[in-house]
Amino acid sequence: MLTTLLQEGADENLQELDPESVEKTLSVFELIMNGGPGAMIIIAILFVLLFVAVYIYFERIFAIKAASKIDKNFMNQIREQVASGNLQGAKILCAQNNSPVARLTAKGISRIGNPLEDINTAIENAGRLEVYKLEKNVSVLATISGAAPMIGFLGTVIGMVLAFHQLATSSGQAEMGQLAEGIYTAMTTTVAGLIVGIIAYMAYNHVVVRTDKVVHSMESSAVEFLDLLNEPS
């Protein structure tokens, strides 16, 4: 009997202590939803920026991949056509290869007969246009990588101001639990901003590296074409 009473008393004590002893957990969704209207707006803006960054990244990667496709024997075929005097055949060959290298070569072929300096200038101007096409919207990725962390930090600062405003208006009597909850909820915008910024920064660097490879291929082909024109007939 005594053992039963002691057991019941222990169970009652555990039930009373259980709400306080259970660790509070909060999902990411709940953390965002509990952040207030200001934090939710900041998070929504960051999600939009993330979507834009991911879209630009994949769009540029596919465009650069298409631009880098070129037949390895392309310049050899151009050499044969130009050496035989078949400039029209060389132009048709360039038209069949839809790539920056082919377009630069076609521009050079169309200037054959002019001074070599004029041909070089024409190729350089066409090259600048091709590079501009390859770098389309890449600057947006750089902007997002820098702006996203600052936007997230702005949300945190706003949340901190509101939390301390609550403390000030309550004459220092605000519950520490509510104050702490408001502070760590505000910090979620900084975390989200850093995540978006890191993703955009990595995407930007990868696109730049892939673009540089295509640009180097264009430069190599332009030099090879000019060397072809300098060869003794």
UniProtKB/TrEMBL annotation:
The chain crosses the membrane at residues 38-58, 138-163, 183-204. Keywords: Cell membrane, Membrane, Protein transport, Transmembrane, Transmembrane helix, Transport. The keyword Transport applies. GO terms for cellular component: plasma membrane. It is found in: Cell membrane; Membrane. It comes from the Bacteria. One of its GO terms (biological process) is protein import. InterPro entries: ExbB/TolQ_transport, MotA_ExbB_proton_chnl. It is a multi-pass membrane protein. Residues 97-219 form the MotA/TolQ/ExbB proton channel domain. Belongs to the exbB/tolQ family. This is Biopolymer transporter ExbB. It comes from Planktosalinus lacus.
